[in-house]
Structures are given as structure tokens and as C-alpha cells.
Amino acid sequence: MAETMNAIVISSFGGPEVLTYETVPKPVPVPGEALIHVRAFGVNHAEMHMRKGEWDEWNPITGLECVGTVEACPGGELPIGAKVAGVMGGLGRNRPGGYGEFVTVPVTNVIQIEGTSLPWEELAALPEVYCTAWSCLFTILDLQPGERLLIRGATSTIGQAALNLAIDAGAIVTATTRREERFEWLRGLGAEEAVLEQSDLDRRLLEQGRRRFDKTLNLVGNRVLLESIRITRAGGRMLQAGWLGGLAPVQDFNPMVQMESGVHFSLFHSKVLGTPEFPLSAIPLQNIARKIENGAWDARPAKVFEYGDIHSAHRMLDSHDAGGKIVVKH
Length: 330
What we know:
- The chain is α/β, with parallel strands linked by helices.
- Helices cover 25% and strands 27% of the residues.
- The chain has helices at residues 45-52, 120-123, 127-140, 157-168, 183-189, 201-207, 225-230, 255-258, 285-293, 310-319, and strands at residues 4-10, 19-25, 33-43, 65-72, 83-87, 102-106, 110-112, 148-152, 172-177, 193-196, 213-218, 232-240, 264-267, 303-306, 326-329.
- The strands form 3 sheets. Strands 3, 4, 5, 6, 7, 14 and 15 form a 7-stranded mixed sheet that branches. Strands 10-9-8-11-12-13 form a 6-stranded parallel sheet. Strands 1-2 form a two-stranded antiparallel sheet.
- Helix 3 (127-140) crosses helix 4.
- The longest helix has 14 residues, at 127-140.
């Protein structure tokens, strides 16, 4: 077995050009880990921030997720050769991630995916996005059939996944986007209504006589945090799980003056996936993959790049103009 492997490495902080190809030691799994031969991986906005030096934790070999086959599993939890997805568990943060040719992943952060003929690049579009969206909607927001849900940032990768899952669960969804030309597309996915994403959305909707929402999923971030609370009814839930609008904190935050009474506000960060509080075993990724393969949802990546073209993949990531998931395949 080869003792080295190829990897994409953050050589310094900066633009896509700081990502370099290097030969590095091949990781060796210990009991409780699986060694995955990476076939493809999704590219995430957190990796852009890590590359720029803007994230709290980062590893030179980044990558929050991957799909591939099990090369070794000392504890025997997973069969050799099994088709799997690895997601979070410190990948790309406090341990090497999916940008390597091989990666060791805690078995608690590996999901075996059986019986699917989805190609690797399509399978790679699912793990982080659908695990995050499912956890947001059903673990934290406790979304129920017939509830009115607002998704802010619905054309993002997590927004699209959340829209698919919410419609499938019988929710009534209002979806926001910055581009009016995406309205028809969102309605085609099942959204009852598409509205323009902009500041003071709460004021504009309430002035039109709209009712507040039962649940709100805010993927835009701190910039619209307070108004997302205000547009949610008393007894409802508002969850923040994205930062599409940037990482700047809320300025001069005064809960006494600025927050509505009785609205439950939570935060979700996908780094907790696979922990005892958010076990991957609770997420039906196998069923999600089956629905996608059967044509219920279109979850194909928006852009697919070869492993040798990581700079183009990150330039697309930086543009915020992919329109969906970016995937890199070997």
C-alpha cells in the first residue's frame, strides 16, 4: 500500500491561487475511524473562508465532506469497499479533510449508501447540504405538515435542499432570492410564493397584511437576523444556519428593544453533525439519495470540476454565482 498520496493544500491565505498540489503522507486510520478513498467532494463556502484565513479552525488539507469507498476500517464498523459519504467530524478543521486523495473520518461521521447508481459527482452534492437541511428543518425547527415556512436564501445549496425536504413534508413554503428571474424556478420546485430577498423584509410583508410565519430558516445571516425573528410568530421558531450575507456581527444588539417576545431563536452549525446530540444515524440520507435517483428532486451539482482544476472551482465559489452545488471529482 502506498505511503503517500496527492492532496490539495492551503499553502498560505489568499485567493484560489494559494491552493497547491502536494504529495503528503497517506493517513493511517485508528480504531473508530475509516479510511476513505475519495472519489469526489463538494466545495463549500466555509472552505473559501478557511482559504482566506477568516475561519476559526482550518487544516491545510481542507474539505468538509467527501464520497468514496472504504479502504480500511480497523474497528470493522464498515465493510471494505463500501460506498460511503463522510461529512464533518472535524474534516478540514482540526484534521485533514476531503481535498486529499484519502482521508480518515470518525465512523460516527460516515454514512454507508447502498444500492444507488448515482455517479460520484452527483452523490458528492448531497452529504453536507442534505444532512444540514434535514437537521435544520426536523431536528431544530420541528417542521410539521401544513406549517408556513420562510426560507431566506432559498436558491443557495442548503436552501434548495431545504425547499425540497419541506415541500415533501407538507409545509407551505415562501422562498426568497435576490433575483426576480429565479421566482418561476422556485415556484416550480414547489414554493407557494417567491419574494425578493432584501432588507426590511419583515416590514414589507407585514405592511401587505401578511401573517407572520410559523417557522423561519435564515440562511442569509446576521444582516437579517433581527428582522427574521420579527417575521416569525410568537411561539414559532427562527433558525439561523447560514451566512450568505457575510460574517459581520450584529451591531449594537439590544434584545430588550430589538427582539420580539415569544419567538424561539436557535443557531445551527453543521460542524456538530455526527455528535451525540446530532447523530448522522438519524438522517435518512439513503432515502434522500433514492428519491433523487428516482427523479423526485433534481439535486445535480451546478458545476463539476476535475481534481486538477481546483483553482477554477474556487473562482466559481468566490463569485457566488454557481447557482447550486460545486463538486470536484477525481
